[in-house]
Amino acid sequence: GQVVYSIAEETERGAPVGNIAKDLGIEAATLAARKFRMLTGSSKQYFTINASTGALSVNEPIDREQLCELKPACLLNYELVLENPLELYRMEFKVLDVNDNSPVFPLSEYHIKMPEFLSPGARFTLPNAQDLDEGTNSVQNYTLSSDEHFHLEMQTRGDGSKYPELVLNKALDRELQATHRLVLTAKDGGDPPKSGNVSVIVTVLDTNDNAPEFEQSVYRATVLENSPSGTLVVQVHATDLDEGPNGEIRYSFSNTTTADLQRMFSVHPHTGEVTVNGVIAVQRPLLELLVEARDNGAFGMSSTAKLLVEITDVNNHGPEITVTSLSSPIPEDAVPGTVIALLSILDKDPGENGKIACQIPDNLPFQLKPSLENYYSLVTSGLLDRELISEYNITITATDLGSPPISTQKTLWVQISDVNDNPPVFSADNLDVFVEENNPLGAFLYQVSASDLDTGENGRVSYTLRNSTVAGSPLASLLSVSLANGSIYAKRAFDFEQLKSFYFQVEAKDNGLPALSAAITLNVYISDQNDNAPAILYPASHNGSVAVEVVPRLADEDYLVTKVVADDEDNAQNAWLSYHLTYSSDSTLFRLSPHTGELRTTRSMRSTDFLKHKVVVVVQDHGDPPLSSTVTVGILLADTLPQVLPDFDDNGQPPPLLNATNIYLIASLACVSFVFAAFLLFFGVVRL
To answer: Where's the Cadherin domain (predicted)?
Structure first.
């Protein structure tokens, strides 16, 4: 949008101009929240906006003549930038002229030398007054103080500009009056009008009655703005009908030519060649100079010609890129078309040299869109993904259409902010965990870990157990998990004999909004330990009593006396059982199978065998260390089951090893050995 205001120059500070909110259809209450800014290329901020009401007022009085010099129209361009959403409005202020400048002559005194022999009708050019105001407020007419010898006439040059001439009414007589003092007054058309005066001092001379005359009243030339010093612009030429020194002409710039133009150009005093003298540092396309031709007479006469120099632009300015607004970082879920930056791109050259083409690299998810005049918007053109690319360096290239073209580059650093678009991810869906039973409380079991590609709170993962039950008990009573690192600990000891395996799920959740989560299933297998001794199921003993088995009195060899049956609640080798006979009242009578636990006779029973026997059987597993259980079996040799069983209780102690029979056998063996040794000794002595 665009709005145009008109304001008179020198309007006092605080004077109202308009209401920008009302004129542009904007709610005044939103101006501050939308971070409004007024942008201008001027070095001063001439206007201000009330953030509460939207009222536009004068911030600093404007001097139109200082701001716009001699331009016919004085315009101030402002841009109003609003954010959230990003909007740009153009404001144009037409600065109206007021009659605040009086006409001013370039010199405080102007001297004219006139030969006394001049006839009435002779003309002399008078200086033009300058008035910085425009239109009717500029110089409108000239008047001359009363003098019988002179009057004032206005003349028109070939380009339509007017200038005053002093016309001789009556012949001069130097002997009567050598000097005439006149006052030239310039008036503007303001209300009230303003005026300026200059003294015109006429000195009457006796010689040189012809002034030089230019071949043209107006000379026109064209020169490139980057022309080097010494470049010929034009050659002016004037003639003087006088002879000798009175006809010799010297060229120079008139005093009414501004000093800056006299520094840019020089005129050869003898040839009239106008050349470039320095850098042409002006922005105006047409320059106006006055060249004076003066003869070398004792009382030199002069005339002036106007020189209009048209400056041809060359492409000597590159585009200027200004970042008016930049939004960074931008969220990665920004939709295509989101405005990121507002750019102002200008080229000071006029015409084609000032036209600009802008571009950015093709491989970026962004594009440049033209906005208002000389403004471009940088918008997204595709989807963004911070996990792939977290920042962009966008190089904007602005190239003018000059020949050769000039390019300017500016790089914008745009960061992409994270949104919670990635859930935590485990390395596997299932994991197997092995733990030995009888573990201590708080034992570490396993550590799960999930990764999240997001950053900050969106990527910070916490771990929890999903609610479930194991063997009828809440999972939370068995396990705990570290919220921060996913370490899993046992809250109680496991018992393989009660629980061999179970599974549960750990949930990983990020801290985004809304939060995203994932779960992993852990299969827990409890390893067995040898913590159970074999249990003897048969033969059963009650309260430590001896189990009694009845065997026929004359049983045959390999007769099955009994079979020891045992069980171990442990698993694998911890439950592999072996049977051992640790005590037997008659070691020659019974044998025990180590694998089956069968107790059998090793020979046939004899009538001389004792009727009552006792064996102790040990059942042992293969754990590390092994555990064992014992059972004592009493064996009664009888053909029928007696009504009362004999007492086998001897405190489990085996019978004494040294009875009478054993002592007899030992003594006999010792005697025989002694006799044999004595014989050998005797035999050895005999041989020697």
So the answer is: 6-105, 106-214, 215-321, 322-426, 427-536, 561-648
